[in-house]
Amino acid sequence: MADKKVLFDVKHLRQYFPARGGKTVKAVDDVSFQIYEGETFGVVGESGCGKTTVGRTLLGVYDATDGQILYNGKNVRSFNAEDRMNFSKNCQMIFQDPYACLDPRMSIGTIVAEGLTVHFKDLSRQQREEKVNQVLGYVGLTSDYASRFAHELSGGQRQRIGIARALAVEPRFIVCDEPIAALDVSIQAQVVNLLTGLQRELGLTYMFISHDLSMVRHISDRIAVMYLGSIVELGGNASIYGNPQHPYTKALFSAIPEPDPYHSWIKSRVHLEGEIPSPINAPAGCKFCTRCPLATEQCRKESPVLREIEPEHFVACHMI
Amino acid sequence: MSEHLLEVKDLAVSFSSYAGKIRAVRGVSFHLDAGETLAIVGESGCGKTVTVKALMKLYGNSAAFIEEGSVIDFKGQDVVHMNSRELSKLRGEGIGMIFQDPMTSLNPTLTVGYQIAEGIRFHDKSISRQAAEQKAIELLKLVGIPSPEERVRQYPHQLSGGMRQRVMIAIAIACDADIIICDEPTTALDVTIQAQVLELLNDLKEKTNKAFILVTHDLGIVFDFADRIQVMYAGVILERGTKYEMFDDPHHPYTWALLNSVPSKQSKNKGALYSIQGTPPDLMMPIQGCPFADRCDYCMPICKERMPQELQLSETHTVSCWLEHSMAPKIKAPSMRGEE
After folding, report:
1. Where is A137: in which H helix or E strand?
2. Which residues in chain B are closer than 8 Å to A180, comparing Cβ atoms?
3. B73-111: buried (b, 16+ CB within 10 Å) or exposed (e) per residue?
4. Residue closest to A207 by CA, chosen among A4, A58, A5
5. Residue range A275-297, pLDDT digits in tens
6. Do A257 and B221 touch (CB under 8 A)?
7. Nearest CA in chain A to B199
8. φ, ψ dihedrals at A259, nearest 5°
9. Candidates A180, A186, A213, A272, partner chain B, best to mutate (most B CBs within 10 A)
10. Residue A202: helix, strand or coil by DSSP?
11. Residues of B with CB below 8 A from A219's CB?
12. pLDDT tens profile A72-131
């Protein structure tokens, strides 16, 4: 991977939100990772682990509390107006809920063309229409969808519009935030096939955020496993799924339902007692210590840092 | 009287709407015996929830109605023609239900103890308030909630999603129903919590002689939990069999597609997933022929004209597909488990 170009370099990112009673929700707490050009970077974890917040902060939806985000080697905080414009053109997002993310009063054509009116001001009306038809074609829809409205479309078609809207401005990087969570199984496969196909054709980089572990395994090159705002394990697809090291990763992956009547995954899984604590009162030391079968005194006091245990495979655990 | 605990014959359920009649369930027959688990699998809108709600006529004021000629026989009782008093007795005492979304199915203004005891006290008028609460505590203990004596006085918002689903399970089993319907019991939960809840349901299955009906779209949980599986599509059953038959020897192209569209451990990284083109049919329109014909890779002219008959492959395995006809081309099921 050394020869690959780093697109995003994230260092010690923190994203805190104020909560009632003067408390703080530490949604993302000291997270560092890199995203290489052309890869799919998967982020998995249970709800509330901060995976969506990481994606949003990366794109500047939230202003990071602390830490650095370098895009192409340049700090996003020191962007000038032109850099910012470029950044917002090149980095797009596909949202989770295809029902909520499309304006019901805008036609599909207007929705898809909206980004063009900002980033491609020079296009004539006709050129814009052509561009809209072209991206609709990318996502497998015909040009007559441009005059329709969101309520006329099914969930899978709407998600395609969400993808077309992101593609219209010719981005290099797309954050896919649970893009298939709201879709039926047969439609999920359609959308995932579409995303992998587009990546091959257009050389896109994805950050694929999902709680669907089997889909992340299917689509990702490298994967970060998050728990309560921290990355507990990071590595290539094969090492994360084939050789998980962190006790949380092991438990999480053993809970993936496998359709196999001869082998019960429920009985053979790694048991994990209790539930994810609230990020307002995250435990001291290792955040996983309250549920970890290996936890010791050290884990309750010191929080572990990511260590490289084999090339390109990082684990944050005292016990390994 | 039927020999089965529950026998459903030619069940058809429709909704009346301003635009016409929506035929959500179009002739479904199945049975259920004590101690076994039946899974109903299908995509959203295929009629699986409507089917199980019909079993206790749980439609409230909605526009749904059960069509003439449908038979639902529960322990020799005719459910279709029950009056409201008989239905109240059936619900909870005969059939219990675990709903999909524990966030919206519990009343936020009542303690969980009250909500569990509500059913107990409704069905057993002689039981005292204290005794009912005591029973609620025992049930909370049974479903694995720590410190039930305190939890029983708490409100749903004080519990996490997994705990709320455990409370839902406690409510469903409170009146010792013979059949427990689980309608997408783990869809709203995280994977580790999903595994905990499924383990609890598995325990209940082993400890009691209750029959379970599991409604889900997730094939991953079906094979671990169910004994028999039936695949529904557009209001009809396309294939049914034991879990081993459905896994080793599926016959219907829709079952193939469902099994193959989920990436498995063996599937290739970024390889194409098997996907079904198009979307399910509009149930407002009359469907001629097989409802899956428009999306089927193996569609033949006959498929669009006539619905195939249900063919018995073994005592437990049936399929409705023209590919089984002696004149149809012999098609090998596309290889499962990922090899391309």
Report:
1. helix A125-138
2. none
3. bbbeeebbebeeeeeeebbbbbbbbbbbebeebbeeeeb
4. A58
5. 788 888 888 899 999 989 888 99
6. yes
7. A266
8. -70, 90
9. A186
10. helix
11. 269-270
12. 999 999 999 999 999 999 999 999 888 889 999 999 999 999 999 999 999 999 999 999
The single-letter code of the amino acid at A95 is: F
Q: In chain B, whose CA is at the least distance from the CA of A251?
A: B192
A182 min Cα distance to partner chain B (Å) = 11
- Chain B residue numbers with beta carbons less than 8 Å from the beta carbon of A258 are 220, 223, 264-265
Q: Residue A216 carries which side chain, given as an amino acid letter?
A: V
Distances (CA, A) of B227 to A256, B55, B201, B260, B264: 20, 20, 14, 21, 21
- Smallest Cβ–Cβ distance between A185 and the set B221, B262, B267 belongs to B262
Q: Which of B158, B223, B246 to mutate to test the interface with A (most CBs of A within 10 A)?
A: B223
What's the pTM value of the predicted model, to 2 decimals? 0.87
Size of interface A-B (CB pairs under 8 A): 121
Neighbours of A80 (CB within 10 A): 8
One DSSP character per residue, B264-287 reads -TTSPTTPPPP---S-PPPTTSPP
3-state DSSP percent of chain A in helix, strand and coil, to 5 = 40, 25, 40
| Pairing mode of beta strands A40-44, A205-210 | parallel
> Across the interface, do A217 and B263 touch by the CB < 8 Å criterion?
yes
Question: Residues of A with CB below 8 A from B258's CB?
Answer: 185-186
Q: What is the mean pLDDT of chain A?
A: 91
Tell me A246's DSSP state. Answer: S
Chain-chain contact of A211 with B263 (C-beta, under 8 angstroms)? no
Q: What is the DSSP letter of B196?
A: H
The total number of residues written for chain B in this structure: 340
Residues in chain B with pLDDT < 50? 338-340
CA angle B310, B241, B72 (to 5 degrees): 70
Residue in chain A nearest B202 by alpha carbon: A266
Distance CA(A253)–CA(A267), nearest Å, equals 14
- Cβ-Cβ contacts under 8 Å, B247 against chain A: 259-262
Query: And the tokens for B13?
Result: 């359920």
Q: Cβ distance A116 to A169 under 8 Å?
A: yes
Distance set, CA A32 to CA A9, A12, A24 (Å): 8, 5, 21
Token pair listed for A301: 């006091």
Pairing of strands B77-78, B71-74: antiparallel
d(CA A299, CA A287): 9
Size of chain A, expressed as the number of residues it contains: 320
Instruction: Please give the C-alpha separations between residue A94 and each of A5, A97, A290, in angstroms, as whole numbers.
Output: 23, 9, 34
Nearest to A275 among B160, B243, B247 (CB): B160
> pLDDT per residue over A28-72, tens digit each?
999 999 999 999 999 999 888 999 999 999 999 999 999 999 999
Q: Kindly list the residues from chain B whose CB atom is less than 8 angstroms away from the CB atom of residue A260.
A: 223, 247
In chain B, where do the E strands start and end? 6-17, 20-32, 37-41, 64-66, 71-74, 77-78, 95-98, 179-183, 211-216, 228-233, 236-242, 311-312, 318-319
